[in-house]
Amino acid sequence: MIRHARPGEGPAITAAYDWLFAAPGTRPADWSPAIAADRVEAAIADEGAAVLVAEVNARLVGFATVYLDIVSVRFGQRAWVEDLAVAPDRRSSGIGKALLDAAKAWARDRGAARLELESGSARVDAHRFYERERPAEWSRSYRWIL
Length: 146
Known about the structure:
Layout: E1 2-4, H1 10-15, H2 18-21, H3 33-45, E2 49-56, E3 59-72, E4 76-86, H4 95-109, E5 114-117, H5 124-132
Parallel strand pairs: 4-5
Antiparallel strand pairs: 1-2, 2-3, 3-4
């Protein structure tokens, strides 16, 4: 069910980002599917990243991107889940949990002491999911567009 994405799957995974852009999400103003597909392909090839996909009957039903990130002075190596999405018709079926568990295992196997992610403030359903997964802690996140 969960596996690492293979080279050439970037465009199909990029199309699945529409799951993240649907309400309450938003599409970034400068979104380019071609650039995004290139970035997915780069992550697939990067040893410091993993693009995980969930399939059911050969259909893409979920994906997660996870990256080795900073080495924190306080906490050591961190891994970051940049995106995690499940097809709307497959939510609440265990796919999100399987993807998150696979991301945790991938990060742990690479020496990460922490796995972190952020979730938009309007994503109440996603927050319930993450809280069921019993995070060690949670915090607010702030960002500036540069």
